[in-house]
Amino acid sequence: MKQNLIGALCAIVIMGGAFAQTPKKPVAKPAAQTAPVVEAKDAATIEFEKFRAEMEDSNPAELFEMKGEEQWKTKRGPKNVALAESCDLGQGVGKIDGAYVKMPRYFADADAVMDAERRIVWCMVEKQGFKFDDIAKKPFANANFTPDITNLVTYVAGHSRNMKIAVPLKEPKVREAWEIGKEIAAYRAGPYDFSCNTCHGTDGKRIRMQNLPNLSTPAGAMKGVQGWPGYRMTGGVMLTHQWRMGDCFRQQRFPEPKYASDAVAYLLTYMIGNANGQVYKGPGIKR
Amino acid sequence: MKNNIMPAAMATLLMIALPAAAEGDYRAKAIAVIKKDFQPRGQASIDRLAEDGLQAVCNRTGNKPPEGVGRAMEADQLADVKYPADGKLMGDWKAGEKLAQSGRGFTWSDKPGLPVGGNCYNCHQISPKETSFGTIGPSLYQFLKLRGTQPDIQKYVYSKIYNAKAYNLCSDMPRFGHIGALGEKQIKDLVALLLDPESPANK
Amino acid sequence: MNTTRRTVLKSATASGVLAGLIAAGALRPEQVLAAEWNKAAFEAKDTAGALKSIGAGAPSNSKDLILRVPDIAENGAVVPVDVVSNIPNTSSIWILVEKNPQPLSASFDFANGALPEVSARLKMGQTSLVKAIAKADGKFYTAQKEVKVTVGGCGG
Amino acid sequence: MADPMKIRATMKGDVAEIRILMAHPMETGQRKDAAGNAVPPHFIQTMTVEVGGKKVVEGLVGTSVSRNPVFGFKMKGAKVGDKVVVNWVDNKGDKRTDEAAIA
Question: Which CATH number fits domain D6-30+39-101: 1.20.1050.10, 3.30.200.20, 2.60.40.10, 1.10.1840.10?
Fold first, then answer.
C-alpha cells in the first residue's frame, strides 16, 4: 500500500531530521476560519425530538423482544438446553433482570471480559452446544434475516429498562479492558487516518445532520449506549451494540472487527463504563 | 503487508525521540488486541491497521506532536504534494459540488475503485443550498470572500485537499491526494468549488 | 354504506354468497370490491386517480381534520402520521402521500365506538405533501401538510 | 409462518388505547436485493380490529406503510378485560390473528 510505504519512509526521515538538525522553518498557517459554526441542536433535531417519544413508545423492537423471550425459554441446540436454565449473565443462572446494564463484566468461567452479546453467544456455544463459527457467520440482521442472537440480546436488554448502567470498573480485569478500549478508540490508522475519536472525541460536532456524541464524557457515552440494541428505521432491521461498533470501523475505513472478540468487548467496556450511573431506557429506535 | 503494526526501526526512534506515553502499556496491549481481532472484509485489508509514520506520531502524542517534530513533518508532507503539470489549479465547481456530496469510498461495503467521494459535506458547510452538512471541520461558505485575498490561495487550497497534514500534522482531515483517493482533476474541481466566484459556496 | 359493508363482511364470508348477492342486485360490484383490498385506489399513480377510485372527487378543506406529521422526517422509511377527525359522524379516514409512486397509503373505517383517529408510520421516497381525507355523512374533507425528507447521514 | 403481533390495549379514562405492532417486511416491489434482482411485492393488504366481539376498525393497507407496521387506535365503550382481536392478511394470502385483553 502506497500510504504505508510513504508514511514509514517519511517518518524515519523526519525522525532523523527533527532531532539531528534544527527543525525546518515552520510553514505559515493561513488564519483560522471565521465563518460561524452552526449549533449542534438545529431545527431539524428539535423537530425529530418532538416525535421521539411516540416512536419509542411503539417500537418494533418489541417484536424482537417477544421472539427472544421465546428463544431464551425454549430448549434448543445440540444439547437441548434452555438458556433460561443454563446461562449465567452475571446475576445467577437464568436471571436477566438488570443483567444488561451490568455488562461488560469479567466472567471467570470464560476468563474474559464480556459484553451482553458476547456472553449470550458464549452460553449458546458452551451450554447449548451451538458452534461459534455458525453463529459468527451471519451475526447481524439484514432485510431478510434476523439472527437468534439479536432477538436474545434484545430480550435481555429489555429486562434492564429504566435501570442504571453499572459496569464494574473497580474489578481489575474490567478496568484493564476499559484502559485498552480507550486506546483502541484513539488509534488512528487506515487510508483516512481516522480513529473512533475523530468523530466521537469532541463535543458538539455533527456528521451531515447527525450529532456525534463525545464518548469520553458521561453524557456523550450515554448517547452512544442509549437505544442499543436498536430498531433501525433504515431497512427496518434490529441491530445490536456489537453491530454498531463494527459499523463505526467500517466507516473508519478499517477492516472488520471479529465477532464477539476482545477488541469489541473492550471498546464497549470503555464506552458503557463511561456511561456508568445513567439510566438505560431499553431497546431503542434508531435512524 | 508488513505484518508488524509499526516498523521496528521507526518504533525505536520514536521511543527515544518522544516522551513515552503515560499509558503506553495499554497502548501496546491495544495494538496487540487490534492485530489479533480484526479480519479483512471487502477492500478493507488487514494492512490498513498498520500505522504509518505520521499516524504513529499522532497516536503517540495524543495528536499534539512536539512543536519541532510537527513542523518538520508538516513540511515533509507539503513537499510531497504534486501540483498539476499544466499549472492550472481551478477546475469545474459543478463537478466539485457533486464530488463534495459523495461520502463513498474505501469502506468494506464500497466497491473498490478510484476516484472516491470527496466526503466534504460530511464535515463542512459549503453551498448554502445543502443544509445537511457536518461540523467536524470549519464552515467553508463564503470562502472566496473570507480567504480569497490571501496570496497563493489556489495553491493553498489545492495542497490542503491534497494533504491536509501539510498544515496541521494531526488534522482530522484525510490526505486525499497523498493516498491517491482523489486525482488531479477531482482536486481541481474542489478548488473551484471553494474559489470560483460562480460557485454556490460564494453566493 | 359502511354499515352495509360490515354486515356483508360479517355474514357473507364465502365469495359464492357475495356473487349471489351481486347477481340478485342486492349489492353493486364496487361495494364488494371495497370490502376487499381496493386495488384500483392503491395502484393509482397519482392522488387524483386515488381519490377518484375511493369516490372522493373534490374534498373540501377542513380545520376539524387534524393531520400531525413532522416538518422534517428523521427517516423517510418511517414517517409518523397521526390523523384525528373532529368532524361529526366521521366514518372513514384515508392517508395519502402525494409524491409516492402509489399515493394511497392506507384507509380505515371506524364503527362500534372506535374514535375516528389513527396513527401509522409511512414510507416517503422524497419531500411531499401528506394528505388526510375523512368521510362524514357521505361528504369528503381533507387536510394536508408537507414533510421534508432529508439526506441521510451514517451511523445512528 | 408469520411472527406474532404485539398488541397493547389500555384504558385511559373512558377511552381504550390500542397499539398494534406487526412483524411484516412490507416489500413495495420496487426494491432490489444485493444481487440486483427485484424483490417481489409482499405487503399486508387488509386488517381488522375487534373489541369485545365487535369489529371496530377495518383497514386497507398499501405498500407505503412502513416495514413492521405500527398502528394506533382509540375507542369508547370498552372496559378493562375486554378481548382485543387483531388480524391481517397480506397479498400472498399469509395471515395472522393475535389477541390481548384491555388492561
Answer: 2.60.40.10
